Amino acid sequence: MGRDDDTHEQGEDYATASPRQPRGTGRRLHGAIAQKLGTAIVSGRYAPGDVLSGEVAFSEELDVSRSAYREAIQVLAAKGLVLSRPKAGTRVLPRERWNLLDPDVLAWVFAEEPDPQFVRALFELRAIVEPAAAGLAAERRDRADLKAIRDALATMRRHTLATEEGRAADRQFHAAILRATHNDALIVMSASIGAAVNWTTQFKQRARALPRNPIPDHVRVQEAIAAQDVAGATAAMRLLVDLALDDTRSVMDAGRP
User: Is the pLDDT assigned to residue 38 strictly greater than 60?
Assistant: First the structure.
């Protein structure tokens, strides 16, 4: 097993890591460190304003090289989670500075129990962006766009959203609709919207199967876009997002004591 393959021991406590030689650097290693620290920050174990342990102390606690730790901090800084300054140390930034739509940050949010208010905020964002995007897609889509939307839908049907293949197709479905708008400002949101769709779907399946089959909701959107029905595509996507939020609420309510 290579040095980097040990980096996914997510359950290991920082302070009780077994003593070993630092495991070096590498993209997978500093990515795993960033994931561990990022999850701790977004879950609230580190509060805004907290100063992280010094580079030497933290690299020893995590059993990694100082260079790997520094690279991980650079990742977190690029995503707005921390600010690192010489002599002042690394400080957790206020939540409003975080790039909450970054796919990695979304993954860290959903690694544990997400804040219900944030989940609602994601759906509010989707409800603002995606219905309008579906309407533009109905107006502007070309043959290649329609094929991409149909192919993604067919894969969703074949694999279902209970599988990674089906969830990947779901992300492709929503991304294809954004691309079909031929609006660059919307297209750059594809990764963020796709990550929001993916993590909320996985969240709904943590304790039980999906409350209902959402694929017919996607079919209505696809059919309206194919028919160049702007109003119909807008309404169908709004319904899809609203029903997805209802499903998510039912899962969250079921998990409450």
Answer: yes
